[in-house]
Description:
With 292 residues, the protein is an alpha/beta fold. It folds into 2 domains: 22-117 and 232-285, Rossmann fold (3-Layer(aba) Sandwich); 119-229, Rossmann fold, CATH 3.40.50.1860. It is 44% helix and 16% strand. The strands form 3 sheets. Strands 6-5-3-4-11-12 form a 6-stranded parallel β-sheet, sandwiched between helices.
Amino acid sequence: MADRGTNNITDTPVYPASPGKIGVFDSGYGGLTILKGIRKVLPQYDYLYLGDNARAPYGTRSFELVYQFTLDAVRELFSRGCHLVILACNTASAKALRSIQQNDLPHLDPDRRVLGVIRPTVEHLGQTGAKHVGIVATPGTVVSHSYTLEITKLFPEMHVTEQGCPMWVPLIENNESSGPGADYFVHKYLKELFIRDSKIDSLVLGCTHYPLMIEKIRQYTPAGVAIIAQGEIVGESLRNYLLRHPEMEAKCSRGGSVEYLTTENPEKFNSLAGLFMGETVSAGHLCISHSG
Ligand code: DGL
């Protein structure tokens, strides 16, 4: 690995300068749905996936902890050579992205970039003709009101209803998303949402974990409602970003490889991640360190 350390004079970190992998970060398995979508659109780049499975779920944690955990991950990915990091997690995008972009990047490295998943999803909604949008997400994302704020800013005529689904991520992280417990909780939250707005025409899966149980979600969603998953939306948005920023594109290494890291047991990660990605996954273990 290339140089890692600090600049003694200013105490700012010095990260590898050569082209690097695109970092994709999530609290656990959910970001794999984004990685899959991005690779479908942009297979030519190298990717480094980091799942903080040991500390998932993030969705029920405080703003401060989600921000701290996300910053730890971003620093780790920068130190492993990533110039561009995608927060493939709505909760981290809602609670940490702005602070990292505005307060941390200028000190860490003003030439590196961290992007989220909420803005691309909202921009996509504008192209779909959606009028009544239901957002299912973690309690953390819902409490931040990030979706309502972004949608109201861009499309004031859209009607938005957000529904927290606290049990969905634990079900997925524990490989219970096709069992009867999942039926109970998927039905419960969707019923609550559609009682609050029976005119919903588009359902946004506003947590990157949720496509991992999309069949169950479809089962309890009224017919005719469009279900919107974020993977390819984020992929297309990244493609546009790299076209508009050739200086960043030049810093993304090309080779089509994917490296996986997890803060949990790699064997456990490999079996579920491999099933979902449809290929053998051989993750490395990472003991993530707190940033100072
Ligand atoms: N997959 C993440 C999201 O999109 C977070 C899930 C969690 O850890 O609660 O919000």
